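Try it yourself: sequence plus NAP, in.
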Amino acid sequence: MTSLVTHDSFAPPRVEMLIVGAGITGLYQLYRALEAGLSAVLLEAGEGVGGTWFWNRYPEARFDSESYTYAYLFSKELYDEWRWSEHFAGQPEIERYLNHVADRFDLRRHIRLGTRVTSAVFDEKSGSYTVQVSDGTNYQARYLVAATGVLSVPYYPAVPGREDFTGESYHTGLWPTTPVDFKGKRVAVIGTGSSGGQIIPAIADEVASLTVYQRSPNWCTPLNNRPITEEEQQELRANFDAIKQTLDTSLSGFLHQPYDRASTDDSVEDRQAFYEKLWNSPGFSKMTANYSDFFTNPDLRKEFSDFIAGKIRSIVTDPVTADRLIPKSHIYAQKRPPYATGFYEAFNKPNVKLISLKETPIQKVTAKGIETEDGFQEFDIIVWATGFDFARALQRMGIRGNNGVALENAWKDGPHTFMGIQAAGFPNLFFPGGPHGAAANNPRYNGDQVDFTMELLAYMREHGHNVVEPSRAAEDEWSNMVSAMAAYSPFSPEHSYYFGSNIPGKPRTFLINPAGRGVLFDVMTKSRSSQFSNFTMSQAGHDGADDKVALRTGEYSL
Ligand code: NAP
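Structure, out:
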């Protein structure tokens, strides 16, 4: 093994590509960079690889995309040798998988754990970033890839007294690596999104009491997870090429077959029978395999919501609790729906209680527990399942582009990007899996962005360029498309965190690509066929040195 870089203060560690974040996207980017012969280092704030799947290790954290559709497809050998035990794998298995990938492809020696980026400043003369990290090291990086994800900055609501609680307090998105002992404890869970939906039933049997503080109910439907049978394991392997083809090209990035009938093709009775089928179908197929007019017909989504409300009433025995669990202010898919196992059933247990914060808001947290308008309750553990500040990680990294402009200032009214890959004025910065990204199975879409970036860099190398940013016109066109198409998205500006609506004071602007993967593919195809004409490219030296010369002399070598 050769060493990465020198660490003396005169010659900052130099690298062609610096990647931030060891989640599924960052690891893939690292693999692709090394495959292309770039010198690359990946910095990760956590003490392990996995990103989301490192930090979110709360009980029952698991995929709600099918395991084999979320996992990597770049290596048939990897796909063949890894046996997912369940259609929707749990966090420990996912973390094992990502560690296996890091070892299998010898990525680990390029990864620096426990290392947080504190600033990244672009120098126009050298065409590179000076990246300062928490241990004081300065990296010099030609290309900076922020694979920092969109759900990586946990959000704690500003509840008075939150810090005063003297019991144990955890956020689902920042879960400790040492096990939390829930046995016999009095536990509060605040939040009933996807994370709350998973942890609530998981701990209900173990705890002495579980009090769920719900501000808004959600349309939670069954994940319908099960083990992958031996026969299915064989099929998954035998059909790799077809599966890969579907996942690489389908608009949703799932294997679910779109349904070819519109809701108007069926009678009311047939629709109810179809909804029953969907209720029993796996994960996201409730959306992706729903009627063909699902995304364009709010009446259909209202009818589907009413069907789910009926299910909630049939499962939850206490009618008042059932009613509180039924959303009244939004219909299905106006928010990203959770998929969980045994969520509604948990509220039938004698030790589980639901508090509706709409009726009795939290007044304060004290040293011993939580006070609502309805009274005070003592707790041993409070779990904050209160979500994330979407795409915030990228903005708080201290990135500065041309003329010292801070990304945070440039995006004070919301992100402006081209394809959710780059931003004008921030040359050589890439952010796959970031804002203006996927509305579907994330790793597939994020992988498309990484692949495109590598094509772009290969083109640049061939043509003697090493600095790239999108043109303002391309960025404006893409960002205007995002704003215009947001109106056609089923997600609601008032309710969905895709608009930043969960964070007080955050600009309300659409944060994902409402036109989906199809439009991303179209724009990528046009860009390729025009020799990437929507990007501005130039050549700069690394303190006067040329990258290729540096590579030959081993300055960047690993
Ligand atoms: P979330 O969906 O944003 O849910 C946060 C919850 O906290 C909501 O119930 C919210 O209520 C509540 N909350 C926020 N502020 C509050 C306050 N001031 N007082 C009381 N309650 C408050 O967050 P999440 O559950 O962590 O999920 C985020 C995303 O992560 C998911 O949508 C999904 O994309 C991903 N995820 C995926 C999985 C998986 O299955 N693979 C699992 C977990 C998470 P309001 O609705 O009223 O704001």
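One thing you can check immediately is this: Residues 1-10, 542-558 have pLDDT under 50 and may be disordered.
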